[in-house]
Write a structure and sequence with these properties.
The protein is an alpha/beta fold. The chain has eleven helices and eight strands. The chain has two domains: 112 residues, Rossmann fold, CATH 3.40.50.12500; 104 residues, Rossmann fold (3-Layer(aba) Sandwich), CATH 3.40.50.12500. The protein has a four-stranded parallel beta sheet with strand order 2-1-3-4, sandwiched between helices. Helix 1 links the parallel strand 1 and strand 2.
Length: 264
């Protein structure tokens, strides 16, 4: 029997308007198991996050974190080439603090010039300013040396660090497996009479699901790396009215001084 011939369908092709979907880019570590599911939980269906990965080798030391910087260009180039993005998030708090904002932006912009970059460090600092707090307690899952870089970032940004606890983990895959109960109790242990808010650092840390309980028990706002990054991305992307109730007080607030769309 002769093989059937393939013919072009007579159906005229229609395309969805590009303006119907807001697209973000995400650069996640090769070992990151947390950022993507956190963003799926938080983002509305009208927002789409396109993910690429950057090579990373544990342990989480300043030396290993710095090695990622030149790799960010190739990672950014792989995010939906030729498709407009509202912004790109580099999802690593300790690396952002260790490498520095300008260096991260330079390597990403080498591949995707002009696209705004969201970092968990800057997003968290803007979150605290929106919340009107200056005195913060910090909890990280890292080794002490990686934790110090994060605390130094916030101190240099004008915040007062009232307490700073770390869990002493070296591998971010272990950080991703820390239980909710451990995160809640670690936050309670770091809380005290002097801090106005609590910061749970690390995009690998599965802290988003613990926010509501910690806020309820302490009466203070909680900011996490992935929550803050998602908040800034969505607010800058025009989702001003997206206010999920289970992810903290932060989502009741706007990003100060930013109109719809990314500011220059």
């Amino acid at each position: 029997m002769a093989e059937p011939q393939v013919s072009i369908s007579p159906q005229q092709i229609g395309y969805e308007s590009p303006g119907n979907t807001v697209r973000f880019g995400l650069i996640a570590l090769a070992t990151d198991m947390t950022t993507e599911p956190d963003f799926v939980r938080i983002f509305p269906p009208e927002a789409v996050v396109h993910t690429t990965r950057v090579h990373y080798a544990n342990p989480t030391t300043p030396e290993n974190l710095r090695k990622m910087a030149p790799l960010l260009t190739d990672a950014a180039a792989l995010i939906t080439p030729g498709v407009p993005l509202v912004g790109i998030c580099y999802s690593c708090t300790s690396a952002s603090a260790t490498i520095g904002v300008e260096t991260v932006e330079r390597f990403i912009h080498a591949a995707r010039p002009g696209i705004p970059v969201v970092l968990p460090t800057g997003a968290s600092a803007r979150a605290f300013k929106a919340l009107g707090v200056q005195r913060i307690a910090i909890v990280t899952p890292y080794l002490p040396e990686a934790s110090e870089a994060v605390a130094n970032y916030f101190a240099s940004s004008g915040f007062d660090i009232t307490s700073h606890h770390c869990l002493g983990l070296a591998d971010d895959r272990d950080m991703a497996r820390v239980s909710k109960r451990t995160i809640v109790e670690a936050a309670i242990a770091a809380d005290g009479p002097d801090n106005e808010a609590i910061f749970l650092s690390c995009t690998a840390f599965p802290a988003v699901g613990a926010i509501s309980e910690i806020e309820k028990r302490t009466g203070k706002p909680v900011v996490t790396s992935n929550q803050a990054s998602a908040w800034e991305m969505l607010r800058r992307g025009g989702f001003k009215d997206w206010r999920p109730t289970e992810y903290g007080r932060l989502f009741t607030l706007q990003l100060d001084g930013v109109d719809e769309g990314f500011a220059a």
